[in-house]
From TrEMBL, chain A:
This is adenine phosphoribosyltransferase. It catalyses: AMP + diphosphate = 5-phospho-alpha-D-ribose 1-diphosphate + adenine. Residues 38-161 form the Phosphoribosyltransferase domain. Keywords: Cytoplasm, Glycosyltransferase, Purine salvage, Transferase. One of its GO terms (cellular component) is cytosol. Its EC number is 2.4.2.7. Pathway: Purine metabolism; AMP biosynthesis via salvage pathway; AMP from adenine: step 1/1. It comes from the Eukaryota. It comes from Salix udensis. Signal peptide: none annotated.
TrEMBL record, chain B:
It comes from Salix udensis. This is adenine phosphoribosyltransferase. Belongs to the purine/pyrimidine phosphoribosyltransferase family. Keywords: Cytoplasm, Glycosyltransferase, Purine salvage, Transferase. PANTHER family: ADENINE PHOSPHORIBOSYLTRANSFERASE, ADENINE PHOSPHORIBOSYLTRANSFERASE 5. Transmembrane segments: none annotated.
Length: 183, 191
């Protein structure tokens, strides 16, 4: 976590234990961090949102960008609570109207992320939210889309950081805040 | 049923919500006037009003499950769930949910698709609502209802921001009540 030297907030333990690990999904060798069980735990889900809201409410954030699809679960409640707009960052061909795209690499091949033209304005302060950061490819693409139109990405925020995949490195000097570490 | 005919007649919030929705012509294909809610999400007041209207309706109805249909149901469902103290259950396209799932097929204009829910997400007897941004033919919502009923939950109502022509006049879907905030915007009176 970004604040590793502070005492862990007591709510973190409940959030961490509400996350379910599914072995060998989507393929052998991957230990999938499943947040859906946390969404069934009303206290853990509320605590998750509260921790992000407490961190960002007085930081003049006007944009919360959420990465499809699990970023759509966490981003809107945060946006609503801090008075920001919610901007969905989507897979290709989902957003109607004019979009800008950013390509990013996958383990094999590439994918694309899209954002609506006009959703954000230059100079706005933004957060990027997803449930988890692994290699950082998706988050990085989202950050680049926002930076291309002159938005200041204040921080990336995830529930879980998968350690050992250099996600934090891929984000460079852009701040990353996570609640739970996993290996 | 439409909110305006069911206790919210003249509520100024409904007009703000309607006006925040953008119509994109010929998406995803020619002839379709796509009702784009992303502009609603950019309007903090309209977005908050949308969630508040649903929360006010459901908070005292003993709802313990809010099921949201991927992906735009994810944008509305969680905030409602959090406010009413219910769990949020994502209903997803095939192979997205890890672990054990149940699946329900439904018809598209051409072909079929499938909606999945985690085994064990809901318990027998739980009272649930289903959320999506828009109801058109009701195919997706019907599949959602069946998934919840197969898990022996009671679907109390389906709730959508927008209801298309086909459902106007129908208060029920699969025998379940349908609650809709606004009708689709027409291109003539838009922006």
């Amino acid at each position: 976590m970004a604040t590793g030297d502070e005492q862990q907030d007591p709510r973190i333990a409940g959030i961490s234990s509400a996350i379910r690990v599914i072995p060998n999904f989507p393929k052998p060798g991957i230990m999938f961090q499943d947040i859906t069980t946390m969404l069934l735990d009303t206290k853990a889900f509320k605590d998750t949102i509260d921790l992000f809201v407490e961190r960002y409410r007085d930081k003049n954030i006007s944009v919360v960008a959420g990465v499809e699809a699990r970023g759509f679960i966490f981003g809107p409640p945060i946006a609503l609570a801090i008075g920001a707009k919610f901007v969905p960052m989507r897979k290709p061909n989902k957003l109607p109207g004019e979009v800008i795209s950013e390509e990013y690499s996958l383990e094999y091949g590439t994918d694309k992320m899209e954002m609506h033209v006009g959703a954000v304005e230059a100079g706005e302060r933004a957060l990027v939210i997803d449930d988890l950061i692994a290699t950082g490819g998706t988050l990085c693409a989202a950050v680049k889309l926002l930076e291309r139109v002159g938005v200041n990405v204040v921080e990336c925020a995830c529930v879980i950081e998968l350690l050992g995949l250099k996600g934090r490195e891929r984000l460079g000097d852009r701040p990353l805040f996570v609640l739970v570490n996993a290996t | 049923m439409f909110a305006a005919e069911n206790g919210l007649k003249g509520d100024p919030r409904l007009q703000g919500i309607s006006e925040a929705i953008r119509v994109v012509p010929h998406f995803p294909k020619p002839g379709i006037m796509f009702q784009d809610i992303t502009t609603l999400l950019l309007d903090h007041k309209a977005f908050k009003d949308t969630v508040d209207i649903f929360v006010d309706r459901y908070r005292d109805m003993d709802i313990s499950v809010v099921a949201g249909v991927e992906a735009r149901g994810f944008m509305f469902g969680p905030a409602i769930a959090l406010a009413i103290g219910a769990k949020f259950v994502p209903l997803r396209k095939p192979r997205k949910l890890p672990g054990k799932v149940i699946s329900e097929a439904y018809e598209l204009e051409y072909g079929t698709d499938c909606l999945e829910m985690h085994v064990g997400a809901v318990e027998r007897g739980e009272r649930a609502i289903v959320i999506d941004d828009l109801v058109a033919t009701g195919g997706t919502l019907s599949a959602a209802i069946r998934l919840l009923e197969r898990s022996e939950a009671e679907v109390v109502e389906c709730a959508c921001v927008i209801g298309l022509r086909e459902v106007k006049g129908q208060c029920r879907l699969n025998g379940k009540p349908l609650y809709i905030l606004v009708e689709p915007r027409q291109i003539e009176n838009c922006c």
